[in-house]
Design goal:
The protein is mainly alpha-helical. It has one domain. It is built from 12 helices and 2 strands. The protein has helices spanning about 1-35, 40-60, 65-85, 95-115, 140-160, 165-175, 175-180, 185-210, 220-235, 240-260, 265-280, 285-290; strands at about 130-135, 135-140. Helix 1 (about 1-35) runs antiparallel to helix 8 and helix 1 (about 1-35) runs antiparallel to helix 10. The longest helix has about 30 residues, at about 1-35. The relative contact order is 0.20.
């Protein structure tokens, strides 16, 4: 039994790293632009379809499609900012919520019209292969997906903490008025943050597609999951996203194995409520950032 539990914990950790990348994309957008993006999961759904069709149409290895989809979704993020988000920055919060809800529904039902509700999945040359470490086995799709997600998370940390662009992003996230008076181009940082957020989504889609089929309604699940991870870990804290993603994945895996898959959402919401009751700012968040 101990070996089984270790197997589950290890598999869940790899899944949690991928979840963390997805949540970091949402955290970047909300933390910098301060617009709640309820279409986050729908963009992940579109990115999964992009991975599928690049694989089917061009014959590309699913993992290589990130070289196309990541820049494509970075550009899509800029377009979304210029076309929609920019006009919501000074709007009431309820208008922002309705607008992003509307965008989510438009993307979801548009995908239903174009691709129907059929589940589609991709396969890779390593889909059926596993890595054996003693008595523990790790399937390559989860291992490679976690490696890709971890690499991008490291790159994001380097970008945010060692470059001028990263310092500008963090300055606007923490003190937007002071950043503006210091001469930082706020508009440029806004669309860069949204572009980076959707690029994270595109890479997450590549990481998750080999073991998760795509269909139009899958986005709602991932939007909910992303918000839970962001709030659980702490708003504005990327390390918090990593911790929150791993915790949620562990709960999903253990509850699914020992009880029933249908109880996973209920279980992580119970844990989520218990934690935020004790720490409303999240595990690694600050009260000032939450306010």
């Amino acid at each position: 039994m101990l070996e089984v539990i270790l197997q589950l914990i290890l598999s869940a950790t790899f899944t949690g790293i991928i979840y963390a990348l997805m949540a970091i994309g949402l955290n970047l957008i909300f933390g910098v632009v301060r617009v709640i993006n309820f279409a986050h999961g729908e963009f992940l759904m579109l990115a999964m379809y992009a991975t599928y069709w690049l694989h089917r149409g061009l014959g590309l290895d699913p993992y290589l499609t990130l070289l196309i989809s990541a820049p494509l979704f970075f550009g899509l993020g800029i377009a979304v900012h210029l076309g929609i988000i920019r006009h919501l920055l000074t709007a009431p919060e309820e208008s922002q919520l309705i607008a992003t809800f509307g965008l989510a529904f438009a993307l979801r039902y548009g995908a239903n019209l174009v691709w129907s509700s059929e589940h589609r999945s991709v396969t890779t040359p390593v889909s059926a292969k596993v890595l054996e470490i003693g008595t523990i086995t790790i399937d390559y799709p989860h291992l490679i997906g976690a490696g890709i997600a971890a690499a991008l998370i490291v790159i994001l940390f380097i970008l945010l903490y060692t470059t001028f662009l990263g310092r500008a992003i963090r300055a606007i996230a923490d003190q937007p008025t002071a950043a503006l008076t210091a001469g930082i181009n706020v508009e440029r940082i806004y669309y860069t943050a949204i572009g980076l957020g959707l690029a994270c989504v595109a890479v997450c889609a590549v990481a998750i597609s080999p073991f998760e089929s795509v269909f139009p309604n899958i986005g709602a699940n991932f939007t909910l999951l992303s918000f839970v991870i962001v709030v659980l870990g702490g708003l504005g804290n990327l390390w918090g996203c990593l911790l929150g993603g791993i915790i949620i994945a562990q709960i999903e895996m253990l509850v699914s194995f020992f009880f029933a898959p249908a109880l996973t959402t209920f279980a992580y919401f119970v844990v989520f409520l218990l934690i935020v009751t004790v720490r409303p700012s999240g595990l690694l968040g600050s009260a000032a950032r939450r306010s």
